[in-house]
Amino acid sequence: MAGSSVEAEQDEKEAQADAQAGGLDADSAALLARLSRNIRHFRGQRGMTRKNLAEQSGVSLPHLARMESAQGNVSVVVLGKVAKALNQPVASLFADEDARTGDFNLIVEFLKRQPVGNLARIREQIFADYQPTDGLRKDRIVLIGLRGAGKSTVGQALAERLGRPFVELNREVEQEAGLSLQEIITLYGQSGYRNLERRCLEQVVAKHPQVVLATGGGIVAEPLTYEILLNAFFTVWLHAEPDTHFRRVMDQHDIRIAKPALYREAMDNIHRTLEARDHLYRMAAFDVDTTQRSVDEVVARIAGQMGA
Fold first, then answer.
1. How far is residue 28's CA from residue 82's CA, in Å, rounded to a whole number?
2. Residues 134, 77 share a domain
3. Which of 60, 86, 98, 200 could disulfide-link to 172, CB 3.0 to 4.6 Å?
4. In this structure, what CATH number is given to the domain that contains residue 178?
5. Are residues 221 and 281 both part of a single domain?
6. Other beta carbons within 10 Å of 135
7. 8 A C-beta contact, residue 129 and residue 175
8. How far apart are CA 229 and CA 143, in angstroms?
9. Residue 114: inside a domain
10. What are phi and psi for residue 238, nearest 5 degrees?
């Protein structure tokens, strides 16, 4: 088994080298190498020859040979045909090796069969078994929510009341990179920024046994990072009515939008973002609507939840 794993790793490295030799950048070559490895893996699991796969998928033998040697781009339609023939979702063709273990796949299939209403309860049970107790988690508090929810203002006041340091994750990211957030995204893209964000979050956890942390609004869309938040912090979702979010963001930058069309566009974006993230924000342990509440009132509600 160990020899097989080493051999597969060597095959992937060779495929990646071949892809790079064909003029692809390192990230694209790695993606094609992962695809080729996974097709061979799932084909081997099913005892299928390449000819069998060609017959069942309708993809030609030469095309499959190129895919399995990480050569050339592949269309979405072809990927769909190969995945169907292997009885796998398309996403699994790009999965990391750890995601192909037997336990992982069985757990995923079990979760897929559960009614949506059961998933929150299952998550809570898993977290209760494998993460710190509520008492330990409440030593670290994290505020999540859309921009304009009041995270920075409330966070500073809450930290002062509880006698804990206050940290803004975005400022930590900027300090780590020596660049502004916009410069980080411009130079390294969203992927680079999110990797840096996760690293800074891990540093905050290691450095601060007690802290109040404010995060960027989109952090909940990063599963790996959000799992760290839910695991290591008592998570509080601050939210407000869309008009309130808009007004607060405008006030922060002393901006006034006079054109109705621009206002509508901004409001549409807030509504879409809230709708897309709503189910993620609702995973927080506690939430406060800040629309009609003063900072002191919001702080008092959170402190009361902490027993302070």
1. 20
2. no
3. 200
4. 3.40.50.300
5. yes
6. 9
7. no
8. 10
9. no
10. -95, 130
Cross-strand pairs, 289: 239
Reported pTM:
0.70
267 C-beta neighbours (distance < 10 Å), count: 15
Co-location of 144 and 89 in the same domain: no
Q: Which of 74, 124, 121 is nearest to 235 (CA)?
A: 124
Q: Are 155 and 166 in contact (CB under 8 A)?
A: yes
Range of the domain at 165: 119-306
Residues 50, 189 share a domain:
no
Q: How far apart are CA 301 and CA 294, in angstroms?
A: 11
Strands, E, within the chain: which ranges? 140-144, 166-168, 211-214, 234-239, 286-289
How confident is the model over 207-255, as pLDDT tens digits? 999 999 999 988 998 988 998 998 899 999 999 888 887 777 776 654 4
Q: Does residue 143 form part of some domain?
A: yes
The enclosing domain of 61 has a CATH number of 1.10.260.40
Q: 106-146 pLDDT, tens per residue?
A: 787 888 889 988 888 888 787 777 765 554 567 899 999 98
- In terms of domains, do 210 and 88 share one? no
Which residue type, as a one-letter code, is found at position 235?
A: T
120 and 247 in contact (C-beta within 8 Å)? no
List helix spans (H) across the chain.
Answer: 2-21, 26-45, 50-57, 61-68, 76-85, 102-112, 116-130, 134-137, 151-162, 169-177, 181-207, 223-232, 242-252, 260-281, 295-306
Expressed in percent and rounded to 5, the helix, strand and coil fractions of the chain are: 70, 5, 25
In a domain, 107, yes or no: no
Count of structural domains within the chain? 2
79 & 162 share domain: no
- The whole-angstrom separation of Cα 117 and Cα 271 is 24
